[in-house]
Amino acid sequence: MKKKKSNTKQKTSTKEPKKPRADKTQKPHYVNAKEFEEEIKAYYKTGDMSIKLGESLTKIANGLSYAPNFINYTYKDDMIGDAVVKMFSALKSKKFRLNSGFSPFSYFTTIAFHAFINRIKKEKKHNDAINDYKEKVYTDIMHEDPEGKKVYIRPTHDDEGGDHDMFQNLNG
């Protein structure tokens, strides 16, 4: 048996050191939970909403809109608007209990999340209604026979995928 030569040279790492993460407070949608809670306390005492509190609600909604499950919707602005309205109405009704021990950030993020889901459901229902209408109109147009030519016959579930003619000649 031959012995393998051992490589006595140690490999040197050519990787660059990792860059430090950006400070969270520098992110555009960052909301400081303690400051947010203090703003809510001040609002509950005075009834006057500060600009900072309004910006915090908007930042929560905008930040959530960049979550992977919401980022690609075309009606994202509607989702954000619905979320801000729902969060403001919850704030106005004083639904968040300050002494509950829960984070106001998570409470209002949950409200925004549910507002997003509700908007998606509304848009889906609206889209389904439009598609049903389009299908009905398309079918009606296809069944018309202005010149006595072939008319489209929709295949039934009983039809198998064979080579049958889906057009019927009305002239014989």
The geometry reads as elongated
Order of helices and strands: HHHHEE
Strand content: under 5%
Largest sheet: 2 strands, antiparallel
Into which percent range does the helicity of residues fall? 40-55%
Strand order of the largest sheet: 1-2
Give the end-to-end Cα distance, rounded to a whole number of Å.
Answer: 91 Å
Averaged pLDDT: 82
Q: Say how many strands there are.
A: 2
Question: Number of DSSP helices?
Answer: 4
Structural write-up:
By secondary structure, this protein is mostly helical. The chain has a domain at 26-121. 50% of the residues lie in helices and 2% in strands. The chain is built from four helices and two strands, in the order H-H-H-H-E-E. It has a two-stranded antiparallel ribbon. The longest helix is centred in the C-terminal third of the chain and has 40 residues, at 104-143. It starts with 32 loop residues before the first helix and ends with a strand. The mean pLDDT is 82.
Structural descriptors:
172 residues; 50% helix; elongated
Brief write-up:
Helix content is 50%, strand content 2%. The chain is an all-alpha fold.
What order do the helices and strands come in, and which of them pair?
Layout: H1 33-46, H2 51-65, H3 76-92, H4 104-143, E1 151-152, E2 167-168
Antiparallel strand pairs: 1-2
